[in-house]
Design goal:
Blueprint (H helix, E strand, L loop, with lengths): L1 H31 L18 E2 L4 H4 L1 E5 L4 E10 L6 E7 L2 E10 L2 E12 L8 H9 L9 E6 L3 E3 L9 E11 L2 E14 L2 E11 L14 E3 L2 E12 L7 E2 L6 E7 L4 H14 L3 E7 L2 H9 L6 E4 L2 H9 L7 E6 L1 E5 L20 E2 L6 H12 L14 H4 L9 H4 L5 E5 H7 L4 E3 L9 E7 L6 H11 L2 H9 L6
Parallel strand pairs: 15-16, 15-17, 20-21
Antiparallel strand pairs: 1-14, 2-5, 2-13, 3-4, 3-12, 3-13, 5-6, 6-7, 6-8, 7-9, 9-10, 10-11, 11-13, 17-23, 18-23, 19-21, 19-22
Helix pairs in contact: 1-3, 4-12
């Protein structure tokens, strides 16, 4: 029963978050575009290994609040016009608060006074660029930082809830996102779980209903007009606890990985293969530039594994005693990328005849920028690229990694210097100009477990899988050679 109440609050809050996030996803799709060919994290589900002894209605009666471990998020389909496949963007936040009251009403138990709040400024989609866009554009969180939900009235909780069984309920109420309030009815599933009420739910939301501004670059991205809001809530009783719960099994084993963006295609396939070989394990990967990932580890990230394209950044983490011994797992090279119709760029030396403002390379602050400049020097290119992306920083973020495909795609540059895996991920939308090994620069990839890893055994197992023959084959298909 309490589960139902909790679900209502949670679901509403999540819906708010998701609704706001959906538009963000559209832009996020542009930023990461082909970076997420596979589905994101699995949908929320009630813990299958938990049991709970029967309780009385009086045990459940009282005030309940959203507790630690609760999450809310969004899931939406996005597809760039120039790609054949769809991707699924997923974002989640633990910044959800709220309360609900469970009361006895005759022979029934009802949930009342449901009020939830979601902090939209703290949504994490595992892509910092997508998240930056959300805060400044689509959701305009500077103006509308919170989403709220309040139930319309009492909701009856099925009697089976006191027996520890899973129950479902529809909760009608008012959902406010982006300053717009609409009626919304959220379906929730709830169950008693070790002294708390565990709730999961999903709800489809139409973006236009909340007056989310039209997204920049929408003409280049096919974004679903509806997104799925997801929530996984745990409610605790205020001023007391249920003493009859028994925990039957541990929670799902999670391995959190931080990885450089050019590893996206290969690591998503490795993730699927690893989870298939290890039932019950959930691998969650955040893709971002190596500088950002380095800083996350330095700031105390609770991740388990980090994979970078920079030996110097990895060495810096080792010197600070933040990681276990780093292991090399592959190398790649650089490649020129041009439009499919371009026939004038045939080698690195060809860049000497290109307007410097039409040559795109990574920012010098990132590893890909260092490698690109070394490549030009090695091949005697005398022009100095000085291209500056004409797109607002809030949209493009930095000019690292996968970002460097963007200029050529939209005609801002004639040629970009990128990693080989990035060109393979882009497919037929662009044309790659291969660089002979003798003229190329070697980009090293290394991987390490964090000393602060919450799951040390899982980290070691995942790293071993990446470096296995199966992992090496997947990396090779993506343009990354085994060491």
């Amino acid at each position: 029963m309490g589960g139902l109440m909790a679900p209502t609050l949670r679901r509403r809050t999540w819906i708010i978050v998701a609704a706001v996030v959906v538009p963000l996803l559209a832009v996020g799709g542009f930023v990461t575009w082909f970076a997420t060919k596979d589905d994101g994290p699995a949908e929320f589900a009630l813990d299958g290994g938990v049991t709970f002894e029967a309780v009385s209605a009086r045990d459940l009666a009282g005030e309940w609040e959203v507790a630690e471990g609760s999450e809310a998020g969004y899931r939406i389909k996005e597809k760039l016009a120039w790609l054949a496949f769809e991707s699924e963007a997923v974002g989640r936040t633990s910044a959800v608060t709220g309360k609900a009251t469970i009361a006895e009403s005759g022979d029934e138990l009802v949930v009342t006074d449901v009020a939830l709040v979601a902090d939209l400024t703290k949504i994490d989609s595992t892509d910092a660029r997508r998240d930056r866009y959300m805060k400044t554009m689509g959701l305009e969180t500077d103006t509308f930082p919170e989403a709220t939900f309040s139930a319309d009235g009492p909701v009856t909780i099925p009697a089976e809830a006191t027996e520890g069984e899973t129950v479902t309920v529809d909760v009608p109420g008012k959902l406010t996102i982006h300053g717009v309030t609409n009626e919304a009815t959220i379906p929730l599933s709830a169950r008693l779980n070790d002294g708390q009420i565990e709730v999961v739910g999903s709800y489809e939301l139409t973006l236009d209903d909340y007056e989310i501004p039209e997204l920049l670059f929408a003409q280049a991205i096919d974004i679903a007009d509806q997104g799925t809001l997801e929530l996984h809530l745990f409610l605790s009783k205020v001023g007391g606890s249920l003493e009859t719960a028994t925990q039957a099994s541990a929670t799902t084993n999670v391995i959190t990985v931080l990885a450089e963006p050019s590893l996206t295609g290969a690591f998503q396939e490795i993730e699927q293969a690893y989870e298939a070989a290890n039932p019950g394990v959930d691998v969650q990967i955040r893709f971002d530039d190596s500088v950002t990932l380095h800083d996350l580890v330095e700031s105390g990230s609770e991740a388990d594994v980090v994979a970078l394209d920079s030996d110097s950044l990895m060495a810096d983490l080792a010197e600070a005693d933040l990681i276990e011994e780093a292991e090399a797992f592959g190398t790649t090279g650089l490649e020129l990328v041009v439009s499919p119709s371009n026939s004038t760029i045939t080698s690195v030396a060809s860049l000497n005849s290109v307007d410097p403002t039409m040559i795109g390379i990574c920012n010098a602050d990132f590893p890909c920028g260092t490698y690109a400049r070394d490549l030009l020097a090695k091949n005697g290119v005398t022009v100095t690229p000085n291209y500056t992306p004409p797109i607002a920083d809030a949209v493009t973020g930095d000019t690292s990694g996968l970002q460097m495909i963007t200029p050529v795609l939209y005609g801002f540059t004639t040629v970009d210097v990128v990693y080989v895996p990035d060109v393979r991920n882009a497919g037929s939308a662009v044309k790659g100009v291969a660089i002979p090994a003798a003229d190329n620069i070697e980009v090293p990839y290394s991987i390490a477990a964090l000393r602060s890893s919450p799951n040390g055994d899982g980290a070691a197992s995942f790293i071993a899988f990446v470096r296995s023959s199966e992992g090496a084959a997947t990396l090779a298909a993506a343009g990354i050679n085994a060491p």
